[in-house]
Amino acid sequence: MTNAATHGSEPDDYNAADDSRKSYDVCIAAIRESLPYKRSERIGDATLYLGDCREILPTLGKVDAVVTDPPYGVNLTGKLWHSTTRGKSVKSATTYASYNDTAENFRDVVVPALEAAIATAKCALVFMAGSTLWDLPRGAAIGGVFLPAATGRISWGFQSFMHCALYGKDPYLAAGLGARATGQYGLYGNDANKVLHPCAKPIDAMVWVVNRASLWNQTILDPFMGSGTTGVACAKLGRKFIGIEIEPKYFDIACKRIDDAYRQPRLFKDEAPKLQAALL
Q: How many CA atoms lie within 13 A of 30 on its CB side?
């Protein structure tokens, strides 16, 4: 007999726990590599994905509504507003972190992604610039929010209307709850400029939009989540939310804003119909 290890036995320095851990790490890395998203977060009734919505959308099931404010394909280079005190237009340096807002990218990237998202939902409400509204898939109607203080400058002067393309069937009509207006007169606080995103919507405007496109406890999908304003509105209104954002910087902002929204007192279920009626 010798001290040599018999055939099939482990070497003297073999560590089963270490080998198991390494195998586990390899398996997890392989799974992550195969996932269509780089990161996911669950916050309250919100599920958030960091990644390209074109890759993630095919893995999702059906939703009740799509509510989104995608890039408009207008070569955005910063926020532009008119200063009444200075008497001239002022532009910030804020623009998209890593997306080039060209007409080509709008047609090749944004529109196909919107078509895929709309196909998952019973209805959809998509914000869009007036100049590129016609490039979207044909919808059922046009609605929007009128802002007398304007949202910027266009070739015809001050833009005072946030256009929304409407798809599918009105959730209120579908539920036998009667007709509602497709537009809203908005006098909202300018809280959007406090968000580190070039095109954040005022939260009150998005609350109206989410409420208009869905009913209590329904699921909303936003494939262009940005800074998470749609998700914040869903948290306030008792909607489930699925958000997708490709830019890590904005994804982190969205996670924090939605987490903060869920830390605020929420409506009880029996209060939701009263708020819904008041908003419409």
A: 6
